Amino acid sequence: MLKLLENGLNALASKLPAPAGRDHGGGGGGFGDGGGLTRPGSFLFEFLAQFGITAHSASALNAAIDAASDILAAADVEAGRTTAKAAAVA
How far apart are alpha carbons 57 and 72 in whole angstroms? Predict the structure, then answer.
């Protein structure tokens, strides 16, 4: 599910205009370096809503991310145990 979400967000992001060249001329949109993309504050919410991420779905998304994180952490712990056992046997 998370990989599908990541792929969808990347696809949406690829449709955005490319940042301007970094000419260091002071113009543009990113920290005075001439590059980047500047949009109004609502842009991020509108962008995420294109993929179904809204204030109403954010808690479910956070729960899925937390569950995935817990699974990965448990896998790391188990991998550490397996490695420690193998080292003790060798």
Answer: 23
Check pLDDT > 60 for residue 25: no
Give a three-class secondary structure readout of the chain. Answer: CHHHHHHHHHHHHHCCCCCCCCCCCCCCCECCCCECCCCCCCHHHHHHHCCCCCCCCHHHHHHHHHHHHHHHHHHHHHHHHHHHHHHHHC
Question: Looking at residue 66, what is its pLDDT?
Answer: 92
Write down how long the chain is: 90
Q: Is the dihedral of CA 19, 22, 28, 33 positive or negative?
A: positive
Helix axis angle for 58-89 and 2-14, nearest 10°, is 120
